[in-house]
Q: What sequence folds into this?
């Protein structure tokens, strides 16, 4: 059983605007994210992009941000009010982050349902996770060393 007292999840999803600031600061291509509104959650990014964003954000904020484990998200999702009405979402358009306070959980996390799957670590898929993480660490180290 996961104890949420020891887990800090950001209260909101990363918005396009926040991701674009990361792209501008690091010279990264914004890719397919440019079609969305600034306050929409960022989509169309790879797992590596998400990992790089988390590392960059941690450096900017001085907070050890990382992608949440799937179990952490599931535990946080269980705290969403049982009577939350998800039928109010303006489909097919993605709503802006934080526009549905009725789905906020008891710890203040917004928009937990529909989180982009790539933005989580996947320890339950151990072989894939270990390989992906090892590859990421190698890539990041090589980049830092100029290789």
A:
């Amino acid at each position: 059983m996961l104890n949420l007292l020891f887990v800090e999840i950001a209260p909101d999803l990363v918005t396009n605007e926040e991701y674009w600031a990361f792209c501008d600061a690091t010279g990264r291509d914004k890719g397919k994210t440019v079609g969305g509104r600034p306050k929409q959650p960022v989509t169309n990014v790879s797992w590596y992009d998400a990992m790089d964003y988390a590392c960059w954000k941690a450096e900017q904020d001085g907070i050890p941000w990382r992608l949440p484990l799937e179990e952490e998200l599931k535990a946080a999702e269980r705290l969403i009010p049982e009577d939350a009405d998800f039928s109010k979402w303006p489909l097919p358009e993605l709503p802006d982050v934080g526009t549905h306070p009725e789905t906020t959980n008891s710890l203040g996390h917004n928009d937990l349902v529909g989180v982009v799957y790539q933005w989580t670590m996947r320890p339950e898929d151990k072989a894939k996770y270990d390989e992906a993480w090892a590859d990421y660490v190698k890539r990041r180290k090589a980049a830092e060393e100029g290789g």
